[in-house]
Amino acid sequence: MFTDLKLIEEHLICDGFMNGYTRWSRHGELLIYRNLIDTETNDDETDDFDNDNYDQIDDMLHDIQDDIPNKDFEKFQQLFVDAEKPLYVGCTKFTKLSDVLKLFNLKANSGWSNKSFTNLLEILHEMLPEDNELPVSLYQAKKLVCPMGLEIERINACPNDCMIYRDQYAGLDKCITCGKSRYKQKNHMEEDDNVKRNAAPAKVLWYFPIIPRLKRLFANAKDAKLLRWHFEKRSTDGKMRHVVDSPQWRNIDYEFKEFAAEIRNIRFGLSSDGINPFGNMSSQRSVWPVLLCIYNLPPWLCMKRKYIMMSLLIQGPKQPGNDIDVYLSPLVEDMKKLWNLGVEVYDAYKKEHFQLRAMIFCTISDFPAYANLSGYSTKGNKACPIYENDTHRLWLENCKKNVYMGHQRSLPMDHEYRKQGNLFDGKTENGKAPQPMNGRTTFSRVENLNIVFGKGVKNNCLDNWKKRSIFWELPYWEKLDVRHCIDPMHIVKNVGESLIGLLLNITGRSKDGIKVRRDMIKMGIRPELALFRKTKNARIYHQLVIPCLELRNNHFANACMV
Fold it and tell me: Which residues in 28-55 are b (16+ Cβ under 10 Å) and which e?
């Protein structure tokens, strides 16, 4: 083992980290377990295009027949004909519908443009016999499969996020809260029937209903089989590899035995965050997608793009903030229906109909979006949603920001860090961490909190609770131990960038500045990192400052080794 830090630094700079060290066997990872996971992944994680079973098109068409609108019924009946019609006379391997679906799948997986896809259809049409049934353009191909398309709801919304024009408000032309027009206006023109009929809506919410998509998922025998993985094929060796191994999954099975009895019932993870569709260099627009991932699937598939459902797309230009509940209402209505009554679904794997139910297992977001989804503000003196009133806040006068201390309370009482206050805030920690609130206690905080949504509306809030989240309307929400989860990607990225910037002294990225040093002096910690006044004599400066910097580097090196 190396003991000279300079020698370690020299080896890292010259040779780098160990090449090919992908399985951390020297840090506790077992080679047998990793090989087992690789084998399972190669066996079960198949390519989306090569292994799609197009022989079950008839079963899928019969399953979705009840969801087809009356206006498309004749077109849908034509699908049955195209599903059996050979691609050309004498062809026994391909049908007209299956061939077009395969080409569409190839187009989507390969990222082809519409023009290149049309050119491919023209070339294939010329290569096949003259009496072939292959479409010769993208328009004809889309027209062929359009009855199989899923429903999309285009819902108008108030530009101030006060309401959406749906259900009893579908026929209104102005917002009931702020009075803003439902439509875009040019030059402050007065509205008339012609303007209302032709004008574009001021803001639009795109809702992709999840119930038809779940039916379509179970209509595929391969996908229906994968949705049983959490019960039939998961490992039971006591190690946590998947959400099914978490205590919350077991608690739900205990609390809701009827729901747990049907292994095909879906448990969703809901995630949302703002994105800029026009590039990363501008922040003038914020679009919020709301995604659903399925935890019934194996761990190598539940986060794959193929199985992630976009349920909502909230258009910008401004982020919805706490008013996101207005846009979540269509999704929550469907989730309540899926929990209380369920829907009848055909399972292509078991060849039977069953009553499908579903629930939202938890939400996943970064810390700012956590506040929007939960209703608890993650800013200010009580920013910690776990400790709330017991949050230890410290205001840094020079940096002009809040820092949150007292993390040693979560350590065992005999842990050495509790006594090493000079490494944290200069105080010895003898307190105990408060117990997290259960769902019923948390709901009592917001049960009587009624607010009016919309930008510019002032509401009377309770401490850091800004609203009663719409998720509390779900009957099972207060029974969950963990309702909102933090996305570790953001935490690792932010902490990692700060740590690397500090160690490498990257300009603009390092947290080690004059203001930080002054705050540490005021707190009475890290005296070895105190500032030294620079003198004109370079020799004196070298004698005063360089030992301090070396001591700092040694301190960080030792901390990294620990």
Answer: eeeeeeeeeeeeeeeeeeeeeeeebeee
User: Is residue 301 left, alpha or beta, with left meaning phi > 0 and alpha meaning psi from -120 to 50?
Assistant: alpha
**Nearest Cα to Cα of residue 225 among 235, 217, 237, 213:** 217
DSSP 285: -
The whole-angstrom separation of Cα 121 and Cα 117 is 6
Q: Kindly give the confidence (pLDDT) of every residue in the chain, 562 residues in length, as a single tens digit, with 9 standing for 90 and above.
A: 556 777 777 777 776 666 666 666 666 565 544 444 444 444 444 444 344 444 555 555 555 555 555 555 566 667 677 777 888 888 877 788 888 888 888 888 888 888 898 898 888 888 888 888 888 888 888 877 776 667 889 999 999 999 999 988 988 889 998 888 888 876 655 555 555 556 788 899 999 999 989 988 898 888 999 999 999 888 888 788 889 999 999 999 999 999 999 999 999 999 998 888 776 655 677 899 999 999 999 999 988 888 999 999 998 888 898 899 999 999 999 999 999 989 999 898 998 999 999 999 999 998 889 999 998 988 888 888 888 888 888 888 898 888 888 888 888 988 988 888 888 888 888 888 888 888 888 888 888 888 889 887 877 777 788 899 999 999 999 999 899 998 888 788 888 888 888 888 888 888 888 888 888 888 888 888 888 776 655 444 444 444 444 444 444 444 333 3
- Give the helix/strand (H/E) hosting 288: strand 288-294
Cis ω for the linkage preceding 434 (within 30 of 0): no
Q: How far is CA 182 from CA 29, 179, 194, 201, in A?
A: 58, 9, 14, 6
CA distance 457 to 448: 18
Give backbone dihedrals phi and psi of 405, rounded to 5 degrees, phi first.
-110, -165
- Give the span between the Cα atoms of 433 and 36, in whole angstroms: 39
List of residues 6+ apart from 196 with CB closer than 8 A: 173, 182, 183
Q: Which residues contact 73 (CB under 8 A, 6 or more apart)?
A: none
Residue whose token pair is 């370079």: 538
Contact 364, 482 (CB under 8 A): no
Residue (of 134, 139, 153) closest to 204 by Cα position: 153
Structure tokens at 305: 């793009």
Global confidence as pTM: 0.74
- Rounded CA gap, 325 and 466, in Å? 12
Asked whether the beta carbons of 246 and 485 are under 8 A apart, the reply is no
Distance CA 222, CA 60 (A): 12
